[in-house]
TrEMBL record:
<dbReference type="GO" id="GO:0008616">
    <property type="term" value="P:tRNA queuosine(34) biosynthetic process"/>
</dbReference>
<feature type="region of interest" description="RNA binding">
    <location>
        <begin position="254"/>
        <end position="260"/>
    </location>
</feature>
<feature type="binding site">
    <location>
        <position position="342"/>
    </location>
    <ligand>
        <name>Zn(2+)</name>
    </ligand>
</feature>
<dbReference type="InterPro" id="IPR004803">
    <property type="entry name" value="TGT"/>
</dbReference>
<comment type="function">
    <text>Catalyzes the base-exchange of a guanine (G) residue with the queuine precursor 7-aminomethyl-7-deazaguanine (PreQ1) at position 34 (anticodon wobble position) in tRNAs with GU(N) anticodons (tRNA-Asp, -Asn, -His and -Tyr). Catalysis occurs through a double-displacement mechanism. The nucleophile active site attacks the C1' of nucleotide 34 to detach the guanine base from the RNA, forming a covalent enzyme-RNA intermediate. The proton acceptor active site deprotonates the incoming PreQ1, allowing a nucleophilic attack on the C1' of the ribose to form the product.</text>
</comment>
<comment type="subunit">
    <text>Homodimer. Within each dimer, one monomer is responsible for RNA recognition and catalysis, while the other monomer binds to the replacement base PreQ1.</text>
</comment>
<keyword id="KW-0328">Glycosyltransferase</keyword>
<feature type="binding site">
    <location>
        <position position="196"/>
    </location>
    <ligand>
        <name>substrate</name>
    </ligand>
</feature>
<dbReference type="GO" id="GO:0046872">
    <property type="term" value="F:metal ion binding"/>
</dbReference>
<comment type="similarity">
    <text>Belongs to the queuine tRNA-ribosyltransferase family.</text>
</comment>
<dbReference type="Pfam" id="PF01702">
    <property type="entry name" value="TGT"/>
</dbReference>
<dbReference type="InterPro" id="IPR002616">
    <property type="entry name" value="tRNA_ribo_trans-like"/>
</dbReference>
<dbReference type="GO" id="GO:0008479">
    <property type="term" value="F:tRNA-guanosine(34) queuine transglycosylase activity"/>
</dbReference>
<feature type="binding site">
    <location>
        <begin position="91"/>
        <end position="95"/>
    </location>
    <ligand>
        <name>substrate</name>
    </ligand>
</feature>
<feature type="binding site">
    <location>
        <position position="145"/>
    </location>
    <ligand>
        <name>substrate</name>
    </ligand>
</feature>
<dbReference type="GO" id="GO:0005829">
    <property type="term" value="C:cytosol"/>
</dbReference>
<comment type="pathway">
    <text>tRNA modification; tRNA-queuosine biosynthesis.</text>
</comment>
Length: 379
């Protein structure tokens, strides 16, 4: 069983450390998304260490359909396969059930759907998801759930959440069985449950209370950033997080912008992940403490400054906005790589600053000054 030490609080904001078999995770933390076992943009695991990444996140469904979890198990598990000795979280495939809605059919036993790659029939239920994640040997496995659209009708959400709870109990039973097997890759694999309920406060709260009783290793808030407004998302967190165990990590799935993260930390979230920094980086958009820059703009053509003055990422330490813009315009992969490295460093470094601010009891001031600076910007 992992141990979560709550070091400090400021309001509802938590500063903690989560001890795992693959090392300690200082929280709040941003997990860097490497869907198929790599960060898009030619970023290596050595790079991840250089840019302060603590946790890498990979996708159960994608690794199952391409290369295959059984093959990865034969090769020693995902840590060995991708040469990464720090924590890995694998999501359960539940979000793909949501995003591949045209390709799937949900039943009590699980979900029948077709591969987005070749159309092959796939069945995934709680047991299958746990088996795939056990084969990968990730540090943290996510329970298999259904992610209903944020604005779905109440009756649909009630039925979906009830099924997600039944699935969670099956996940817990199967994970315990798998961890006890002699040939399991990681016998200390942890399980996080997922709170759902769309934007219905009472469904969210009842579900949080119910899953809190299962004494899992951590708890996620899922089904946000899928169609609701930022205000609705913050409201759901305010209502729901107090009913999740404070002595366990809380994880806000798939969120988000730097502002979303600051607001999430204030509402008691420990873990975050999002494709924004890497995806936007590949399109030439850089995150800075003065807001986002689009390096495709002509005004940067002769700008010899780094992306952000004072930034210690590999891109800013060595290259200019003008050169990176040139690479992007020329379609050179180095341009994408430098942008992704900068953005991930920005996120990881911001999390470190958040942790320092919490340590020193000045998170409220840090949050206010960051939001102000990102909103008003400068060149």
């Amino acid at each position: 069983m992992a141990k979560y030490d709550l070091l400090k609080t400021e309001g509802r904001a938590k500063r903690g450390v989560f001890h795992t078999v693959h090392g300690d995770i200082q929280t709040p933390v941003f997990m860097n998304v490497g869907t198929v076992g790599a960060i898009k943009g030619a970023v290596s695991t050595e790079d991840l260490k250089q840019i302060k990444c603590q946790v890498e996140l990979s996708n159960t469904y994608h690794l199952h359909v391409r290369t295959g979890d059984k093959t990865i198990k034969e090769l020693g598990g995902l840590h060995k396969f991708m040469v990464w000795d720090r924590p890995i979280l694998t999501d359960s495939g539940g979000f793909q059930v949501f995003s591949l809605s045209s390709l799937r059919k949900i039943k009590e036993e699980g979900v029948h759907f077709r591969s987005h790659i070749d159309g092959a029939k796939i069945f995934m239920g709680p047991e299958e998801s746990m088996q795939i994640q056990s084969n990968l040997g990730s540090t943290i496995a996510m329970a298999f759930d259904e992610c209903p659209p944020a604005l779905a009708e109440r009756k649909y959400v009630e039925d979906s959440v009830a099924r997600t709870t039944r699935w969670l109990k099956r996940c817990k039973t199967e994970m315990a069985r798998l961890n006890a097997l002699e040939d399991t890759v990681n016998p200390n694999q942890l399980l996080f449950g997922i709170n759902q309920g769309a934007v219905y406060d009472d469904i969210r709260i009842d579900h949080a209370k119910e899953i809190a009783e299962l004494d899992l290793d951590g708890y996620a808030v899922g089904g946000l950033a899928v169609g609701e407004s930022h205000e609705q998302m913050y409201h759901v967190l305010e209502e729901t997080v107090p009913y999740l165990p404070q002595n366990k990590p809380t994880y806000l799935m798939g969120v988000g912008t730097p502002a979303n993260i600051l607001e999430g930390v204030e509402r008691g979230i420990d873990f975050f992940d999002c494709v924004y920094p890497s995806r936007n980086g590949r399109h030439g958009h850089a995150y800075t403490r003065f807001g986002k820059l689009n390096l495709n703009n002509k005004k940067f053509e002769k700008d010899m400054r780094p992306i952000e003055e004072g930034c210690q990422c590999p891109a800013c330490r060595n290259y200019s906005r003008a050169y990176i813009r040139h690479l992007l315009k020329a379609g050179e992969m180095l341009g994408l790589r430098l942008m992704v490295l900068h953005n991930l460093y920005f996120y990881n470094n911001m999390m470190e600053e958040i942790r320092n601010a919490l340590d020193e009891g000045r998170f409220a001031q840090y949050k206010a000054s960051m939001l102000d600076s990102m909103e008003h910007g400068q060149d």
